[in-house]
Design a protein that fits this description.
Blueprint lengths: L1 H23 L9 E2 L4 E3 L5 E10 L12 H13 L16 E10 L8 E8 L10 E8 L5 E8 L5 E4 L4 E4 L4 E10 L12 E6 L4 H15 L3 E3 L4 E5 L5 H10 L1 E2 L6 E5 L4 E4 L4 E2 L2 E4 L4 E6 L2 E3 L10 E3 L2 E6 L6 E4 L5 H10 L4 H14 L2 E2 L1 E4 L1
Parallel strand pairs: 15-25
Antiparallel strand pairs: 1-14, 2-11, 3-4, 3-6, 4-5, 5-10, 6-7, 7-10, 8-9, 11-13, 12-13, 15-16, 17-24, 18-23, 19-22, 20-21
Length: 376
C-alpha cells in the first residue's frame, strides 16, 4: 500500500509540473490586454510647450563668431549692460568665441507646481561648432500665451564629442544640441482642479469604436453606469457620485483588449513594411522572379618575354551570367490567409522588402488585400 501511494504522489507531481510549465508558456491564442490608462488620455490633462532664447557661455572657442552672428553680439551687449558693464563704445573690439546664442525648449507637465523642476533642451542657432562644456545663463521660458512659466539655467550636457586635425575630423552625435536634467524651475502653474470635476472625458490615443465600447463596458461593470460612449475617441465619465481622483485611479488600472484595424504601412524610402495582425487577403497566386544579366569586365595584361621585342598589351576578358529566375515558383495564397501565412509564403519565394512592397501594391490594386494600405 505505501508503494502504491508513492506512485500516486509521483504521478501527481508530474501532472503538477506539466501544468506549471504550460501556465508559464506564452499563449498565442490569448489576445493581449492593456490598462486603460496606457491607451487613453484625460481631457484637459496635458503638457504645455515652453520656449526661450538665451546664451551659453564657457565654450572653449567653439561658440558663435560675433562678426557673423549679429544677434549673439547684440544679446551679449544687452546682457552686459543690464549687469552694469557698458561696452557700447568698444563693441567693435568684442571678439570672444566662447559664447553662443541658443533656443531653449521644455515641456511643462500637467499638475506641475511652483518650485518643481523640469528638463530643458538647448539648441544652437548661430554658427557655433560645439556646446560641450557650456553653461546656460538665466533664460525665461514662455508658453503660447506669452507668459513666463519657468526659468532655466545650468551646466549642459551634449553627450557628443568632436576632434579636428589639419586634414581630417571626427564627430559623434550632435555637439550643437544638449540638455539639462531638472534645468528649469517652474514659476507659474497651469490651473486644473481635478478634485471638483463632475464629469471627465477619456480620449483614446488611437480612435476605434470597438475599443471604446469595450472600455465603456468594463467601466460600467465595475462602477455601475457611469461611462457613456460618445464617439470612437471619447468616453464620458460621470464623477458626480464618487471621488474623482480615486475613481480615475481605479479606472486607469482596469484592463481591456484593444482592437486594431487591418492596416499595412509602407515606407518606400527606407523599405520598411509594417502589417497589423488582422490583415487578410483573398485567394491569389503570386510569382516573383526577373531576368538578370550580369556583365563583368576583368581585363588581363599580356607581357612580352624577357629581352623580347614585343609590347605590353591589355587583353579584354568578359564574363556574362544570366539568371532567369527558374528557382522561383508560383505560390497560391488561399482566401483568409493571415499575416503569418502571407509573410511565410513570400519568404519562401525569396522575396525581399523592396519586392514585397511591389507585391503588396499589386495585391491591393487587384482588390485582394483586405486592409488599408498606407504609403509614406
Amino acid at each position: 500500500m505505501p508503494h502504491q501511494c508513492h506512485h500516486i504522489v509521483k504521478r501527481l507531481g508530474i501532472f503538477f509540473a506539466i501544468f506549471l510549465l504550460c501556465s508559464l508558456l506564452p499563449c498565442h491564442s490569448r489576445a493581449a490586454t492593456v490598462r486603460i490608462k496606457d491607451i487613453t488620455d484625460m481631457e484637459g490633462v496635458r503638457s504645455n510647450q515652453l520656449i526661450g532664447y538665451g546664451l551659453v557661455v564657457g565654450l572653449n572657442g567653439s561658440g558663435d563668431r560675433l562678426t557673423n552672428s549679429i544677434f549673439t553680439r547684440e544679446t551679449l551687449i544687452s546682457m552686459l549692460n543690464r549687469l552694469g558693464v557698458n561696452i557700447r563704445d568698444q563693441e567693435r573690439q568684442l571678439q570672444t568665441h566662447d559664447v553662443a546664442a541658443v533656443m531653449v525648449t521644455a515641456d511643462l507637465p500637467p499638475f506641475a507646481h511652483g518650485g518643481n523642476r523640469i528638463d530643458v533642451t538647448i539648441s544652437a542657432v548661430g554658427d557655433a561648432t560645439s556646446l560641450t562644456g557650456g553653461t546656460l545663463l538665466v533664460t525665461p521660458l514662455m508658453a503660447a500665451d506669452g507668459e513666463v512659466y519657468a526659468v532655466a539655467q545650468g551646466s549642459m550636457v551634449t553627450n557628443a564629442f568632436s576632434a579636428r586635425g589639419a586634414a581630417a575630423s571626427i564627430t559623434r552625435n550632435v555637439p550643437t544640441s544638449g540638455h539639462i536634467a531638472n534645468g528649469a524651475i517652474v514659476e507659474r502653474e497651469v490651473p486644473f482642479n481635478l478634485k471638483n470635476r463632475q464629469n471627465l472625458h477619456l480620449s483614446l490615443r488611437n480612435p476605434d469604436l470597438t475599443t471604446a465600447s469595450r472600455i465603456s463596458a468594463v467601466i460600467n461593470r465595475t462602477f455601475g453606469h457611469i461611462a457613456t460612449l460618445e464617439d470612437p475617441r471619447t468616453i464620458n465619465i460621470d464623477l458626480s457620485n464618487s471621488d474623482p481622483v480615486s475613481t480615475l485611479a481605479r479606472i486607469g488600472d482596469l484592463t481591456v483588449t484593444p482592437d486594431t484595424p487591418a492596416k499595412v504601412i509602407i515606407d518606400e524610402a527606407s523599405g520598411t513594411i509594417i502589417m497589423g495582425a488582422n490583415v487578410r487577403i483573398s485567394t491569389i497566386a503570386i510569382a516573383q522572379g526577373n531576368l538578370t544579366v550580369q556583365v563583368t569586365e576583368t581585363p588581363a595584361v599580356s607581357q612580352p618575354g624577357p629581352f623580347g621585342n614585343g609590347q605590353t598589351a591589355v587583353v579584354p576578358r568578359t564574363n556574362v551570367a544570366v539568371d532567369t529566375g527558374h528557382n522561383h515558383h508560383l505560390t497560391v495564397m488561399p482566401s483568409g490567409t493571415t499575416l503569418h501565412d502571407l509573410v511565410a509564403g513570400l519568404n519562401a519565394l525569396g522575396v525581399g522588402p523592396r519586392d514585397l512592397i511591389s507585391i503588396l501594391q499589386a495585391i491591393k490594386a487587384d482588390g485582394a488585400l483586405q486592409a488599408e494600405l498606407e504609403i509614406r
